[in-house]
């Protein structure tokens, strides 16, 4: 599947990596629920790093959409909450 | 915010990624108003893409301007810091420890300002690189889209074209959304730094590097800073005293001791003239971030016409 890391581009990730990424994603969700900024940042970095490690960059001239979109690696809690609700997102 | 459902299934637990994806996709798709003949949307979208390319290039230029401004300030503050160090040395040579202390206190402030600016510089540099890469990526996709669009227009009827068009659109609109947000993000960061840069400019102009904290801090932090700066000053004073007693100024006093180490510091002490440190200007309190005037209007509005330099726009359709 193709995964986009916002601000960074698209990667093709083997489906076999999905389970591990789901775990990392759940940690991020947990931290968001608890409003734990420090844990959230750590978890998000780990998730993005996990995708990067499991993926290979998609050629820049590809017009394929992504199956999954990840927030910016350095996003804070408030920013990701916006991304999850659509507040402040500017349409292309 | 209701994020995780706790389910351990593949889809359900991908809550953050899924959620962001859904929202992002719906926004990106909304950006494209569909037209009567789907083939017309190809040209319309292509125009939007060219505009976005211009926008991101302007974004890169804006960030670069900010970065250069910070660089300039870093140089100025470094010079100021060097000057203060020399003043301290001179003052101490003249037996004015009080003035030396004052100069070193200011120097300590200048140094902390400098490290703050270094962090800003690094951040702007990273932002500039990211936008540059984003701009190149978008260019590749726009080129690919243009080729695809010509094929679709030449080969398919309006009815047949729809599926192909949707395929091409979903990829490019996602990229456009990503780049658009990256520009916004860079602008926000740059605006914050411009405001601080304005404050530092005023500070430099006032000549007072005494109270350089442009950001409000709590009392404890201020006290800690003072203590930190205080001990730095004491250390510097000790070091300079050591240098002076070790390698005194033979020129002035017909030197009872030769400078044993022949250090650069000793030589510079020789060359020094005792000069009073200028009094702290009152402007330090009144340093306001000159936000409004300092921010160059980036003007990335919808009105931007792609006519100025339309990249690869020569398809003449």
How would you describe what is shown here?
The complex is a heterodimer of chains A (92) and B (317). Chain A is α+β, with helices and mostly antiparallel strands and 92 residues long. Chain A is 48% helix and 16% strand. Chain A has a four-stranded mixed sheet with strand order 3-2-1-4. In chain A, helix 1 packs antiparallel against helix 2. Chain A is globular. The mean pLDDT of chain A is 89. The N terminus and C terminus of chain B are likely disordered. Chain B starts with 14 loop residues before the first helix and ends in a 23-residue tail after the last helix. Chain B is rod-shaped, with a radius of gyration of 30 Å. In chain B, helix 1 packs across helix 4, helix 2 packs parallel to helix 4 and helix 3 crosses helix 5. Classes of the chains: A alpha+beta (92), B mainly alpha (317). Chains A and B meet through helix 1, strand 4 and helix 3 of A and helix 1, helix 3 and helix 4 of B.
Give me the Rg of chain B, rounded. Answer: 30 Å
Helix/strand order of chain A, N-terminal first: EEHHEEH
Radius of gyration of chain A: 13 Å
- Whole-number mean pLDDT of chain B: 72
Task: Output the structural class of chain A.
Answer: alpha+beta
Helix content of chain A: 40-55%
Task: Please give the number of β-strands of chain A.
Answer: 4
Query: Please, how many helices of chain A?
Result: 3
